[in-house]
# Entry
Amino acid sequence: MTKTRIRIFLFSAAAACVCLAVAADEEAKFLPAGPGKDAVIKYCTECHGSDNVRMKRLDSDEWADTVAQMVDHGAKANQQEQAAIVAYLAQNFGKNSKVLINTAPLTELKSVLDFNITEAKAVLAYRNEHGDFKDWHDLLKVPGLPAAKVEAKKDLLTF
Ligand code: HEC
# Structure
């Protein structure tokens, strides 16, 4: 991207913040509890939803890089808050972190569980209609979601 295009992009991202902010607050309450969560909600859902975070599985160094990049974009967290955010993200969205299947957004279903868009949408529709999944067998009832895909990822799911 050229500098101008990046500026235009960031400007439109900032404009989008206004309407995303309310939705982000709603989603953010589904983030796992733990030290650093408040800072993540305060600083990391200002411009985009928490799904940007939930769709990733990064180690501590990679989260530190991402947070530094977001500070460059304009996230206002101070050093101490940044450290708390990195620790929280590495703990809850680290390389081996599980997927909270009852609140997982579309992007997380796609990127972490490798469901395609149709399958991921089917999971959300089923969850909306039937409520929480109780264990991984419940996912076998989702129309159009192949059993093999569910079984392959069952150890990554948490309820
Ligand atoms: C000032 C606005 C702003 C704030 C605040 C902000 N971000 Fe972002 N974020 C962006 C923009 C713009 C993008 C898309 C461009 C990019 O990927 O750099 C983005 C993208 C992302 C992505 C996806 C990057 C990728 O590689 O796909 C992640 C993860 C992310 N942000 C995490 C965070 C975290 C964690 C925080 C809190 C420390 C945060 N963001 C705060 C503006 C912001």
